[in-house]
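Q: My labmate handed me this sequence with no annotations at all. I'd like to see what the chain might look like in three dimensions before we decide whether it's worth expressing. Could you predict it?
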Amino acid sequence: MKISFEVVPRTAEATQEQIEFVKQHLPQINTINVPDLLRLPIRSWEGANFIDRQQHDFIPHFRAIDFNRPEKRFQKLIHAYELDKVLIVSGDPPPDMSHRVYDTQVIDLIKDIRNDFPDIEIYCGFDPYRSSIKQEKEYIFKKFDAGCDYILSQPFFDIRLLEVYSDFLPAEKTFWGISPVVTEKSQAYWERMNHAVFPSDFDASYDWNINFTKQVIDHSAKTGSHIYFMPIRIDLERYFSPVSKMLAGLKA
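A: Here is what I predict for the chain of 252 residues:
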């Protein structure tokens, strides 16, 4: 099982602190994802400067709209940072319109990278809340057909919805997203901005989120799928102390 931890590069110091937390408290983590957020000073591929790739797989995120395909800047970054894994997402519009964007589609960029780097691992995202299940399924399989190797989901909060997607997604190629939501304000944000669906018994507490995490871990272990942790503004030790024991139990 691949288990990924998302490190948000807010500052160099914060980035290093998160990686050290993983090293000290989460030996089961074998992959580190770094998102590309324009408001932050560190671009995703620069995460290569912080991560020991002998210890962790490194997956930087790339926003398709940032790349003009004929310029091949994406390919140049792969060479410059010696990347063997990349994650390609569409990308949100930039907060500052001085940042230039392009009409580059994820599917086309996947094809470019697969053609230029036959052996690279290509990861893509999927969002269970963006459209209908049928439409998202079709989009996911277009990504696979274009050359994507793995898909990583936006966070799930309802195990029933996760199981619906599990019915048709190839388990060995799927990472299930988990992002603990421990305040009502955070829940409202997910509902408003991402149209996330929470079950009626949802409780913005550590206990509820830890129990839900156990359900996802059990599902992943049973099906042979993978896990993608996205911890956002939580007490890492409070949440991951029991979760680490769950993960350790997988190897027992």
